[in-house]
Structure formats: C-alpha cells, structure tokens
Amino acid sequence: MSKDLRSWLILFVLALIWGASFILMKRGMYDETGGHIFSDSQVGALRMAIAGLVMLPFGLMNLRKIKNGKQVLFLLIVGTCGNFLPAFLFTFAETNLSSGLAGMLNSFTPFFTLILGFLFFKQKIRLKQVVGLFVAFTGICILVGILNNEPVKISLLHVGAILLATVMYATSLNTIKYKLSGFKSLEIASLSFSFLSVPAWIVMLSLDTGNVLQTNKHAFEALGYISILSVFGTCLALLLFNRIIALKSPMFASSVTYMIPIVAVILGVFWNHERFHVSQFLGMVVIVGGVYLVNSKQKEVKS
Description:
Layout: H1 3-29, H2 40-61, H3 69-93, H4 99-105, H5 109-121, H6 127-143, H7 156-179, H8 185-206, H9 209-215, H10 219-247, H11 250-254, H12 256-270, H13 278-295
Helix pairs in contact: 1-4, 1-10, 1-12, 2-3, 2-8, 2-10, 3-7, 3-8, 4-12, 5-7, 6-13, 8-10
C-alpha cells in the first residue's frame, strides 16, 4: 500500500473516532434525559487519568529514548497542548454547545497550524491560503450567529474555549513534526501521557469524582463512555495522528478536522437527538471551504 493511500485511510479512521468523541463527552456529562452525571472538569480529568494509566507501561519502557532535557520539554508541550488542557476545554465548551457545533469549531485547527507554522517554523503562506483564513473566519461568524438573522444563542466564552484548544492542537502538531521527528508514534504518545498521568490523577481525585460514582445511578454507565473515549478517542487516536504527521505533514494531519464535523453532526442528531440549525450547515460549508484553501498546495516537509 502506498504512503498516500495509507495516510488517507488513517485520516478517515481518525475522523470517525474523533467525530464520535464529541458524543462520548456529552454522554459522560449527561444521561439520556439531560440529567447531570459528571461535571465537565471531572470528565476531562477522568479522560486523562485513564489514558495516562493505559499508556504508562509503554512510557516507562520508552524512557531510554529520551536523550536530553529539550526532548522532555517538547514531550510536555505535546502532552499538555495536544491532550491535557484541550480535554478540559472541550468538555467545558460542550456544556453550552452541541456536539455537532463543537466538531465544526474544531475545524479551525488547520487555520492555526498554518499560522503557527509561519510564525515559528518558517513555513510559507500562499495568497490562496490567506484567502482561506478569511473565508474560514466568516464561517465561524456564521456558526455563532453573528451573520445570521435568527442567531443561535451561543456563548462566545464556550466558543473561545474550543478555539483556544485548536491553537493548542496546532502547537502540538508543529512540535511533533519539527521537534520530535526522531521519535516513533507510540513513543511520543506514551511518553507525553506518562509525564502527565500523575497530575491527571491528582486533579481527578481532587474533584470528588469518587462521590459521583457512589451517589449517581448513571455514573458507571457514564464512566464506560469516558473509558471508551480515553482508550479510543485519546490513546489510539493520538497514535494514529502522530503516524499521519510522520507520513505526511502537520497541515495534512490537521485536515482530519474537515471530516470530523460531518461525523459529529450526524451522530449528534441521530444519537444525542440534537437540533440541527441551517446556520450550522452553512457555517460548516464555509469553514470547510476556507480550511481547504488554507491547506491546498501546502508544501510538505519530508521527515
């Protein structure tokens, strides 16, 4: 199988996994009737704690791969920006936003990947890509109702949380490609999680998560969804994501966010019974068009 075909297949699988992750986050926080189970912070902490526990044995085996303090710093950046903080930001955002809309907003990852690549990694930006940035920004305005005659009531704070998470994803993407290219996918994932596993467990225990398990009858069902989210939506997804970066480029890897909104919206409507607004569809189309322009003809850096 050619490298290009392998890359596209991994990208498609990753879109399915991450598209479903937005629903799993919701199911960790609310039951089918909309009743509260775990708080957004508890879901984020549980997700990271479980993922850290799963990856810790692999991380301990790969410790010898680290040669200097700079590599530790870059692995901490990947773990913190690529997983730890976004886990809390996305669950916080989904207390106000639908799963579909959260998936759409995640499409801004290529937007920031390009900007950070230009500012810090000497990547060139073409005129078509600049146009794409403005098109994508128009799409985000439509999504939050600014350009819609009947605006959807959406909190800009929660929208901002996802945009901040996409900036962090972009930081992690560029760091993996340009600072950790000598590491394999499993090594990056396991080491970055291992460094953050102890803080994740401390945060999880400090949030009185155990009390929810004892008092809420839906807690163990929700924990099951969070566990699936941790193992597949975090651990496995990170391995696949790191592999795409190694095979292609940060911009290509970030293009998975083109497909995530479609998966998230479909699952949100049919599984979580979320409403679908015309403005969301229009915003998704505009964003996808914008980020496509941003990513078109991007010169890939060979590893």
